[in-house]
Design a protein that fits this description.
The protein has four helices and five strands. It is of the alpha+beta class. Strands 1-2-3-4-5 form a five-stranded antiparallel β-sheet, covered by helices on one side. Strand 2 and strand 3 form a beta hairpin. The termini are far apart.
Amino acid sequence: MTKQNEIEKEERSELEIDWEEKRRQGTFNVSQGENRLVIFRETYRGMPYEIHVIYHKELEKYKGYDHGMWATLERPSEMIELYDAIDSFLRNAGIRLRDEEFCYADTAHGWNEGQDINQRIQEMRREAHYEIDLFYEYLSKAGNALDGIRRIINSFKENSE
């Protein structure tokens, strides 16, 4: 196994899971919803997020799900207030996110048809990283704008004295 494969395997613990066995073991409920098989709690650039694997036996026959499973990107319960504020910040900057909320998305869509659960988990991880990078990018731009505003105000003050 190459070093890159080891790193990818280490970062993608879902690749070690026997999903058929997990479905047999059953689901559990959390504050964000019910029918969870697994929750991956991850952090990127200091910001936590969760990827939930959800399972509904009655959806096994539908092509849009992987044996009744799909993945969601969820906000950790302790981050909801902060992530609501980030969501508002991005909306005010004119940014529209995939599923309209910061760090919330799912793979229960027609375009996910044919993806296995590992691909869906990886898609949610990529979405989390994209949204967090976007937040930091716009936070930096906002900081630069504030610095410019301070200079303008100081210039007005100096010229009015």
